[in-house]
Amino acid sequence: MREHRDHRSGGERIDVAAPLGKPGARTRTQDLPPSSSASGVLASPASHAVDDGSDGGTGAAKTGAGKGPGRLAAVAGGSVEKLNAIMATLLPGYRDAVDALDSKGAANLAANMLAVYQEADLVRDELRAFLEPSHPRYWQNYLLPLTPEQTAEREAARPMLGALDVAATIVVHQLAGGLGVQRFRGREVMRDMTGPIPLGRRAAERLAYEAAQTCEMIDLVNEVRELVPPVDDGGAARLDPDAGRAIAAKVALHARRPVSIAFLRTALETEGRWSFVEHAIAPDGRTVAQLDKAATDQAEVSGAMANVGDFREDVALSLLPRTLNPAGYDVGDGSGVPIGATSANARKVWAMIMSADPEARPGIIVRLERLSVLSALLNNDALPFALAEQLNDSLPTGTPHGKEARRLLRPAFENKGGGRSLARRLRDMGPAGEALAFSQNVATLGFAGSYGDAYDAREAGQISGSEFETRQLSAMVKTGAIAGVTVATAGAAGAYAEGFIAELLAQRAATAGALGFAARAVPQVAGGAVEGAAGAVTARAAGDAVDLYATGGTSSSFGDYVDDAMLGGGLGGGAAVLFSGLGAGARYLPAAARTRLQNLALRFPRHEDFFAGLRRLGEDHGATVRISARKLYELGRDGIVPPGTAQRAIAEVTTSAGRRVGLDDPIVVTVESPLALNKPGDVVEGAAPIRVVRAERVAEDAVSEAGDDVSRAVDDVADLGDEFDAGAASRAEGSAVDDLAAFQAAARARAVEELEQLVERVMFAPKGSTLGDAAIQFDTYFVSHADGARMPELLRSIRSDVATRTYKKGLLVRKGAEEWYFEFNDQAAHLSGQRANAMTAADGIGLPAPNVATLELWGYRGARTIQRPGDPMPRERKTQWTPEEEAAARKAIEDEPLLEAGHVGVSFDGGETIYGLTPDYRGMPLEEVKRRLKNHDVFPGIVGNDTEVFRKASRMAREQGWNTEPIQATLLLDRLEQPRMFEEVQRMANMKPGEHGMGYSWSLPKPGPDGQHFQGGTAVKGPPREFCSAMVRNCAAYPEKLGVPIPEPSGKMIEYMPELKKWADADAPIEARDAKARRP
Predict the structure, then answer these.
(1) How many C-beta neighbours within 10 Å does residue 570 have?
(2) N or C: where does the chain have the smaller number of CB atoms within 10 Å of the terminal CB?
(3) For the packed helices 562-569 and 480-490, what is the interaxial angle rounded to 10 degrees?
(4) φ, ψ for residue 626, nearest 5 deg
(5) Pairwise CA distance, residues 257 & 302, whole Å
(6) Which element (helix H / strand E) includes 346?
(7) Angle at the Cα of 29 from the Cα atoms of 25 and 32, rounded to 5 degrees
């Protein structure tokens, strides 16, 4: 472990080793910022000894830097300030995020608050180690006599312990009342039945679980909002039956905890969606409304906050016989004859009880006694006494009914056998048992999740039954960073605190020789590096932490919030450091507290991944980031980097790498800024705030595997110092541009040669042939996945007018009117059949003969929601748009009514031209048109070029945040059918309204007697003309009259657009080459 001084800022620096088990990880040099002065609700007694915070918390402490108690006083001052920030800013922001149904922002804020709380615990412990002789490490710190100066420093630090104790106590109680699901938008979800979260002995872990549960419930509410759109278009919103069953299954999991389903009901009622969900049927046959009522009833027994797991009272009563008196009548006074249950039934009931949270179990046991069935569970050895003892040992103390439940259970195992209880067994397991008790909390709070394979250990008493597998906590998986922060900062069995303090005090040990242990490497916790005094963990480390925490080996893909959380929660510094580290939660900070970078991220949310890598970019620090060339183009388009940056960077990398760089290839760029983007303020319009000073190609072994999002793979921030010369970089860029033309010509020649070799490996299966046992229905090209991935790069190098689209199952290529579709088949080279190179090559491109034609369906919903920068969720137009937004919408819709109605069209040239069917309403007031369409009157139809309509819809989506971004689905057509369809559209487009025989109307609520979704009638304007129902359509259903399959037959946009989206997201183009394609 190396230590050195940063001579520019005067701050201490600690080099931290990369995470274990992460090959190729880079060493990170991380500033250790001392505290800024304390302020807020609780004043810091040591505020006189620290920097004034003018540098944002990164300057050196004026006194005590590098010395044990003095340094701790400075760090403690920062902890107090950040605890104040929790109460004054972060917790109110968290509640705002919950009320806004923003789970990402809530998770980010919760993770930071818990990291700060854990930090305060560590500092408090170390202060006690210096100040209290009863602390086990006190005498380690003072093996040598203290100098008078050191004694004075120790006494100066003493007031900090009391200040931290008070601050931490207040904060933990504030969090207990504010992190859970007890309230939504100021409303108590269960009135008087809920209170603060019961914390037990592991407050931070329980708070992490509660925050994760809250985020899980927010995600479920948002899922319902997506599935149940608002009532509009003259129709009624409804929940698809399959979607209803899926939602009900998720609700059933949360119904095990009364307060959770109450939060869900309250939020959905507020959003106007509950009435669509309450009738959905869960897997056990109950409706969501019945689940809600059962949970409310259960709250009377076990409390609103406790999770009853798989326990169901009705099932328990069916498995356990009631106590009978000699006459055979039910009794409940204990005087009857006990009748035992079967062993199998007793074990089932025991497993149901053990699946509940420990705090819920006493209430369940007392409830079973009052129902006269507990004796059937415990008597006549129906339940082995060891299991009864385990149940007894799992009951927490200090809960309602706790003592009574223990009294009822005790006779079932006292003086029976010599087996060890669950608690004793865990203690006997040594470190493994301690880790198990930590991660699962069996004998204390028991809120953590998956017991998985532990069922096999049941008889050994290590854990309880297989039903625990149903306790998988998806909340911990979905917001794993919260748990990751908790594990990383608390550590298993206190190992983290010990190792961390060893590092923190290493300098004091070197100068005074007073420590009883030597400095050593920062310990690895849960597979991730705890990085120095900043206490940071990487995104992958957080995923590994959750693996350990949930003991389920779940996927480690939870990196969205951890860098945010640990940058904010890092030890040292004050509230400014905490605020600057926030990511998704920054929008809930007061505007004055947000950094320039956070404000940029709110203004350009689509670039949030890029800004995440620059969180500490300042005047004297650059950053190295790995992104795609396409992302650079987008940054330049939005004015974040200067125009032309992407072109120059690609030219530079192309020259240095000796091969062309594609738009989706990853490159490494070094950036700088003239502004302190990591400090509060805003970025005014004008000059780009970020400059690219160097660009490099990513080494082949560093490129992410196929499917990785390279734009999110952000390298650690690095201190550049004098490492680069911006002038030299500019000269290199100019030289690269000069040489680019010659290089591209050579690259094109190489690409042509490589494509020829690739085409030789393509197999051609003509229509009517067989492939194994399967008959080939259409002329088909087969290509391997590797060749299919390489082909677009080669084609782009050869011809700029070639368009490609890669699907999961194949590759679509278009050059003008010629189109190809290649199906992926890794066995293609070994299949028998014609080789593609035997076909006639297309002129100028080197591919075999075209084998498909395509048509695209384009569509968008009318303006229903808006989501502007800073909005966590779309806002519905009917209830949530501002007057200014509504006024702007009315003006835009006046100019183009289809922005409100929505539109669907067809394109034969890849979206360059889009044709659609619209009504001829010229000269009629818009409100009159709407009234007549709702009445299903018929207008003469106009077939025309509506490309500009779709461009306007896309522009409103980009600039105003409307939900009008068009989606596009591609259909494969027969190469002879597609020209016929195009000619038909052209013919109709050249005719007067209605002259082609097509009328326009809105679809009926249900098909008419003739099976048609539209009503015929006389045209409401123009020459008298009768349209039969078979010749009346709206824009969505019109393509059907051309012989084009459509995703939904009625044409109702509320039902049509979700189906079109499924087509757009399909694994391959939609197959429509059937020879029996419909004709009008």
Answers:
(1) 28
(2) N
(3) 40
(4) -100, 120
(5) 10
(6) helix 343-354
(7) 135
Q: Quick check: helix, strand or coil at residue 712?
A: helix
Integer Cα distance of 498 and 476 in angstroms: 27
Phi, psi of 121 (to 5 degrees): -60, -40
For 330, list phi and psi in degrees, rounded to 5: -65, 140
Tokens of 74: 């400075």
Whole-model pTM above 0.85?
A: no
30: which DSSP letter? E
Look up residue 52 and give its amino acid. D
Identify the three-state secondary structure at position 364.
Answer: helix
Torsion of CA 531, 537, 539, 543, to 10 degrees: 130
**Cα–Cα distance between 1042 and 352 in angstroms, integer?**
60
> CB-based contacts of 250: which residues, under 8 Å, 6+ apart?
220, 223
User: What CA–CA distance (Å, rounded) separates 234 from 227?
Assistant: 18
Q: What's the rounded Cα separation, in Å, for the pair 46 and 155?
A: 11
Q: What is the pLDDT of residues 721-739, one digit of tens each?
A: 222 233 333 443 444 344 4
* Residue 359 structure tokens: 């705090």
Alpha-carbon radius of gyration of the chain: 34
The encoded tokens of residue 56 equal 């944002």
DSSP bridge pairs for 625 = 669
- 8 A C-beta contact, residue 625 and residue 614: yes
Phi-psi group of 365: left, alpha or beta (phi > 0 → left; psi -120 to 50 → alpha; rest → beta): alpha
> Are β-strands 1032-1033 and 999-1000 bridged in parallel, bridged antiparallel, or unpaired?
parallel
Handedness of CA 307, 313, 314, 318 (dihedral sign): positive
Name every residue whose Cβ is closer than 8 Å to that of residue 314 and which is 6 or more positions away in sequence. Answer: none
Kind of pairing, strands 28-31 and 183-184?
A: unpaired
Outline where 687-725 has alpha helix (H): none
| Residue 779 to residue 758: CA distance in whole angstroms | 19
**Contact in structure between 160 and 120 (CB atoms under 8 Å):** no
Burial class (CB in 10 A: 0-12, 13-18, 19+), 910: middle
With H, G, I as helix, E, B as strand and everything else as coil, classify residue 18. Answer: coil
Q: Give buried/exposed letters for 863-896 (b at 16+ CB in 10 A, else e).
A: bbbbbbeebbbbbbbeeebeeebeeebeebbeee
Q: Provide the pLDDT for residue 424.
A: 43
Residues 6+ apart with CB under 8 A from 96: 588
Residue spans of the domains in the chain: they are: 311-438, 602-724, 741-851, 856-1071
Helix (H, G, I), strand (E, B) or coil at 808: coil
Residues 115/489, Cβ–Cβ less than 8 Å = yes
**Angstrom distance (rounded) from CA 598 to CA 568:** 13
- Candidates 972, 675, 939, 730; CA nearest to 850 is 972
- Between 109-118, 177-186, 398-407, 549-558, the lowest mean confidence (pLDDT) is in 549-558
- What percent of the chain lies above the pLDDT cut of 90? 23
Query: Residue 670: which H helix or E strand, with range?
Result: strand 666-672
Q: Across all residues in the chain, what is the average pLDDT?
A: 70
According to DSSP, residue 430 is labeled T
Cα pseudo-dihedral 501, 506, 509, 510, rounded to 10 = 180
- Comparing 116 with 581, the larger pLDDT belongs to 116
Using an 8 Å Cβ cutoff, are 802 and 845 in contact? yes
- Tokens 């259903």 locate to 1037
Distance (Å, rounded) from C-alpha 123 to C-alpha 162? Answer: 12
> What are the φ and ψ backbone dihedral angles of 919, each rounded to 5 degrees?
-85, 150
Name beta bridge partners: 856.
907, 970
| CA 534 to mean position of chain CA atoms | 25
Query: Residue 262 in contact with residue 231, Cβ under 8 Å?
Result: no
Other Cβ atoms closer than 10 A to 723: 12
Q: What is the largest CA-CA distance in the chain?
A: 109
